[in-house]
Amino acid sequence: MFENAYELIVYIMTALGIYDSIFRVFEVLGIEYVLRIIIVFVEIVVLFAFALVTIMFLTWMERKVVAMVQARYGPMVTGPRGLLQPVMDGVKLIGKEDIIPDKADRWVFTLAPFIIFIPALLVFIPLPFGDSLVISNFKIGLLYIIAVSAISPIAILLAGWASNNKYSLMGAMRAVAQDISYTIPLALAAIAIVMFTGSLSMVDIVTAQGGTWFGVIPKWFIFLQPLGFILFLIASIAEMGRIPFDFQESESELVAGFFTEYSGMKFAMFFLAEYAHLFAVSGIVVTLFLGGWNGPAVPFIPVQITSLVYFLIKTYAVIFFAMWLRDTVPRMRIDQLLGLGWKVMVPVALLNLLVTGLLVTAGVI
Amino acid sequence: MNAAEELKNALPNSVVSISFQLDKPLAIIKKEDILKAATIARDMGFVHLSVITGIDYCDRYEVVYNFLSYVRKQNLVLKVILDHNNPVVDSLTSIWKGADWLERETYDLVGIKFSGHPDLKRILLPEGWAGHPLQKDYDMKTEQFVTIGDDGEDIVSTDGSNLLRRKYHGN
Amino acid sequence: METDELILNMGPVHPSTHGVLRFRLRMDGEIIKNCEIVMGYLHRGTEKLGEMKTYLQFIPYTDRLDYISAMPNNYAYVKAVEELAGIEVPQRAEYIRVMIMELNRIVNHIVSIGSLLMDLGAATMIMWGFRERETALQLFEQLCGARMTFNYIKPGGVREDLPEGFIPKLREWMKDMEKRLVDYEQLINDNEIFHMRMKDIGTISAQEAINYGLTGPSLRGSGVDYDMRKIEPYSIYPDIDFKACTRPEGDSYARYIVRIDEIKESLQILRQVIDSMPEGKIVSNAKYGIAPMTGSPSSVMTYFPRIFTPHAGEVYSRIEAPKGELGFYIVSDGTTKPYRVKIRSPSFCNLTAIPKMVQGLRIPDLIAAFGTIDVVLGDVDR
Amino acid sequence: MEKGGIRLDPVTIDTTKIKTIKRRPVTAIDKLEDTGMISTILAAREREGLILFSTIDQVFNWARLSSLWPVTSGLACCAIEMMATAMAHHDIARFGMEIFRASPRQADLMFVAGTVTKRMAPRVKKLYEMMAEPKWVIAVGACASTGGPYHESYSVLKGVDNIIPVDVYVPGCPPRPEAFLYAVIQLREKIKNEGYGAKWGLNK
């Protein structure tokens, strides 16, 4: 309906009858752009607050899902059914001693957590949470997302190298090898989607999936691209670094992987970045293949709200799948994983791309 | 004919005497011929080297080997009697890889040396530990402490002041 | 390009060394060129303590050797002492011993498989496994009051008779266990990643396995049809119908499958033992002043002698513990304390083969191979 | 007004004055002394003069006691019971403690679960030193507390408190999982009464 959340806010304020008066104040002062900045700033604050709450909730959810699979209760004591547990963990980690090892590279060691945490949040910017609920509808949204998430291996490498610990270094090397090998099938699987839409904008991709075939089957790309969906899902789980592909951490082999030496708040940032990544990547999977925020309209409720609900339901379903997978399967071996990436997934993704291209050119779909 | 008698027939000069250890055939071997006897025992089908251990009898050391044959379902015990001053016997590592650690352990705890062992060093106690605990005259009164050096190696001393944070009430 | 070797110290505090073991790895990138095992971080001097304690006082220490399967340890020591002293054991006591040892074998294999899977990254199996273990431990607790360190088997019999309602509870547990076993197999055996991780990893041929002195499931996984219960039958095993589970491959997967098969076989043994459990005394009272205590409910409760003096002599007695051949070599000089106790522990001897197995593999393979060898550090370092 | 050993009334901070005062008025801390809770007293003594940070302390203490992450370090038999405590039946996760960190940097609590041998002692100490403050230690079982059944052995340290400070001792050989949980609850009680302003040097 609207291009982005800015226009939505302006529309709401206009509807409430306050926008014009505020705008006039700024107009008189000759600084209209300041109002624009303020509104964008509010948007970003809301987004980041939402992201942080989501991340905290995800850590709780992960522990509860693990507990459910493993026939346990999970956190119960702190807050109702342990809901306050992530808050407590966060406060505790803030209060922990911050250790920088003697032989570590101090600057890089301190910088690495930020380099991993900030891109994890930047991914949220072009992500359409609902109809009109997007911070910025880039024309190159998909490319931007792939590019930004490719920053995290650099941070991991910095962290692993700066720690001056053999386990950290090995974890970092593994993470980089893994991320590089899996970004390619990830991008190739995403390009097949772009062939349908002809646009890299995330909003366009979602809009293209609106409507149904025969009034029953939703027009999601998962039905047009089943192979692409599987490739993208596997690649994104590998990108997230979760079991069965959690080589960067792999507790039973490398103690704690690249963040072995981190403590306190810096460790918390790695921890949070992991879950931010989980949410973002699940959101991207939903946007590309599961119809994004599309869903049946509900009378009397604004589409912005229903679409947000649909998006969250789908995203949490994907997240639940990732958590479930983590509790069920063992870890692969790094060479097997790289073999899978280069020998199976890249050729299959290319083939998928070729077939899709032919079909689209022939006008079949 | 039991296994010990067979062994005596094969090596009449090496076997000092044969008897029984409860129901298991036992042969006492001259200490320089243990490798020969063990090879023959293996060829007789006693492929499983179950245990090597040493016993300190104050006037002598005895090294006991227990072999088992999976096919014949029989035991064979070999024994070597060593001098108390210089307990050295040939190592069986050339025949059984599994003898490696058993011999190291015997060296570590009882103090019997195995000549021909590729890497005879302490296994359970850290390098530098004074005495062999299973010798009867081992000094149980003296406390020994271990600290770690720069490369993670163990340093043994009787002074635990680097390690302990309060007065130590050991016995 | 110039490359350098990486020396990696895994342990003694590392999540997948099952305690305090240390691997000193010389690595070329991720490939292990040489693996040296450093141990002794849990060396508690049990053998020396054996010389300082009387025969009965030493039984609790055997519990703490292999603390996951303590009952076979009890039994191995007691069997050696019984052979040394020539004590007859009543039939019922032998049945109870075998029953409880087989139960302990199942518990041991559950823990072993669970921790293997945890090292591979799938933590669910160990949680499920410990659920069944916990109920089994409750049975142990009913029997002897302890969950892990039992001190239950004594020379001449067992400490207490079966409590009321024990057998029905055990039957219930077995029925439950059979159901759960299907769950485990669904969770693990059909998993493609598990196969990728385990097959052709840590392979050791039958010849080498014997040469390295491997015993137990580790040897049977290499295709050697051996089982101490068959080769040197003890207790009531000759009367029981069971088979030694073997697999020919000799890799990690084979060793894992052998353990699963052994759980099934142990359930089979348990069923036979329960069905033919005789009535009667649980302690022999002939020789060493063990007198039945009158007035106790089942009138088979007995005293054990505090002081116990076998004949002078020496004995080597072995059993098939869950991890392999567990032997006690005891030298008696005719006094109340052993002159020398030597423990031939399965974990110690099985561990010898690890450097051979992992040569040229990677760290994850080392963990997989190490997990299937099933080592308990109390048993290694003693 | 004083409650639970924490002074709530606003007092101007004058540390020099506090140091020179020889006789303090009777406080809740002194009352604690009668009950013999030495560790609590020591923690309270450290907090002498700490006024401003009492609320922060309360918040942090609550967070700390709610999220005790143990370090994965099993030494011997007790480690198996530690595992059993973490498993489904006893489920230490209820206290938010199921995150066993393999890296001591990220852990708050060390279960010294098992016999500390002479050879392991410096490693245990190093592990403790690697942990980030604030950190706690629970000595689990007879061996870690006193040497236990191995007290006479030549290679066993007679109590881990000879090398590192211990907060809670758990008897048993090995202790049951219920005893573990009880020890955890005791430690939570202890943390509730600790003060950190002093440790950070904020009130000097």
Structural description of this entry:
The complex is a heterotetramer of chains A (365), B (171), C (382) and D (204). With 365 residues, chain A is mainly alpha-helical. Chain A has one domain (92-362). Chain A contains 15 helices and two strands. The longest helix of chain A has 38 residues, at 32-69. Chain A is globular and about 60 Å long. Chain C is an alpha+beta fold. Chain C has helices spanning 46-52, 59-63, 70-85, 91-120, 124-144, 166-188, 192-198, 206-211, 217-220, 228-231, 252-275, 346-351, 354-358, 363-373, 377-381, and strands spanning 6-10, 22-28, 31-38, 153-154, 157-158, 313-321, 324-332, 338-344. In chain C, the strands form three sheets. A three-stranded antiparallel β-sheet of chain C has the order 1-2-3. In chain C, strands 6-7-8 form a three-stranded antiparallel β-sheet. Chain D has 204 residues and is mainly alpha-helical. In chain D, the strands form two sheets. Chain D has a three-stranded parallel β-sheet with strand order 3-4-5. Chain D starts with a strand and ends with a helix. The model of chain D is unreliable at 1-25 and 32-36 (pLDDT under 50).
Topology (elements, then pairings):
The complex is a heterotetramer of chains A (365), B (171), C (382) and D (204).
Chain A: H1 5-16, H2 19-29, H3 32-69, H4 85-94, H5 106-122, H6 141-149, H7 152-162, H8 166-197, H9 202-208, E1 212-213, E2 217-218, H10 221-224, H11 226-240, H12 251-254, H13 264-289, H14 303-328, H15 334-362
Antiparallel strand pairs in A: 1-2
Helix pairs in contact in A: 2-3, 3-13, 3-14, 4-13, 5-7, 5-13, 7-8, 8-11, 8-15, 11-13, 11-15, 13-14
Chain B: H1 3-10, E1 15-21, E2 24-29, H2 34-43, E3 48-56, E4 60-69, E5 74-83, E6 88-90, H3 99-109, E7 113-115, E8 145-148, E9 154-157
Parallel strand pairs in B: 2-5, 6-7
Antiparallel strand pairs in B: 1-2, 3-4, 4-5, 8-9
Chain C: E1 6-10, E2 22-28, E3 31-38, H1 46-52, H2 59-63, H3 70-85, H4 91-120, H5 124-144, E4 153-154, E5 157-158, H6 166-188, H7 192-198, H8 206-211, H9 217-220, H10 228-231, H11 252-275, E6 313-321, E7 324-332, E8 338-344, H12 346-351, H13 354-358, H14 363-373, H15 377-381
> How many individual domains of chain C?
1
At the first level of CATH, what is the class of chain C? Mainly Alpha
* Cα-to-Cα separation, first versus last residue of chain C: 46 Å
Order of helices and strands of chain D: EEHHHHHEHEHEHH
Number of domains of chain D: 2
Q: State the end-to-end distance of chain D.
A: 23 Å
What is the overall shape of chain C?
Answer: globular
Average pLDDT score of chain D: 74
- Quickly count the helices of chain C: 15
Approximately how much helix is present in the residues of chain C?
Answer: 40-55%
Please state how the strands of the largest beta sheet of chain C are arranged side by side: 1-2-3
Instruction: Output the structural class of chain D.
Output: mainly alpha
State which percent range the strand residues of chain C make up: 5-15%
* Number of DSSP helical runs of chain D: 9
How is the main sheet of chain C built?
Answer: 3 strands, antiparallel
Tell me the strand percentage band of chain D: 5-15%
Quaternary status of these chains? Answer: heterotetramer
Strand order of the largest sheet of chain D: 3-4-5
| Overall 3D shape of chain D | globular
